[in-house]
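About this split. The held-out portion is used to measure sequence recovery: a designer receives only the structure tokens and must propose an amino acid at every position. Recovery is the fraction of positions where the proposal matches the reference. Here is one held-out target exactly as it appears in the evaluation file.
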């Protein structure tokens, strides 16, 4: 061989838990499920709207850690959208150019 190698397409997945989750993702999911279990144990599930509110923490957390194509998960998409709208979007050119040279000025 010519000592060349290919990096597998899923090389980043080997750093994730079960190939899908970061430790923070599992923490978010576990906390949502934990809150839901506590609400179920309190027994506040007599009517439909109470059942929906009881299951809401687990549902929201599961939605946040759900995988999305071209991103890691929904939480990463929301963070990227937030950064796009809140951070500076005027980019100052800092590169090499003849006009940046002190002799030219």
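Reference sequence for scoring:
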């Amino acid at each position: 061989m010519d000592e060349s190698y290919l990096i597998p397409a899923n090389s980043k997945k080997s750093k994730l838990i079960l190939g899908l989750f970061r430790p923070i993702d599992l923490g978010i999911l576990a906390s949502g499920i934990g809150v839901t279990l506590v609400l179920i144990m309190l027994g506040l599930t007599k009517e439909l709207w109470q059942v929906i509110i009881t299951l809401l923490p687990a549902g929201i957390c599961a939605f946040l850690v759900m995988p999305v194509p071209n991103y890691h998960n929904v939480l990463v998409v929301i963070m990227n959208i937030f950064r796009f709208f809140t951070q500076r979007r005027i980019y100052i050119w800092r590169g090499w150019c003849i006009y940046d040279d002190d002799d030219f000025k």
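Annotator remark: The helical segments are 23-42, 48-64, 74-86.
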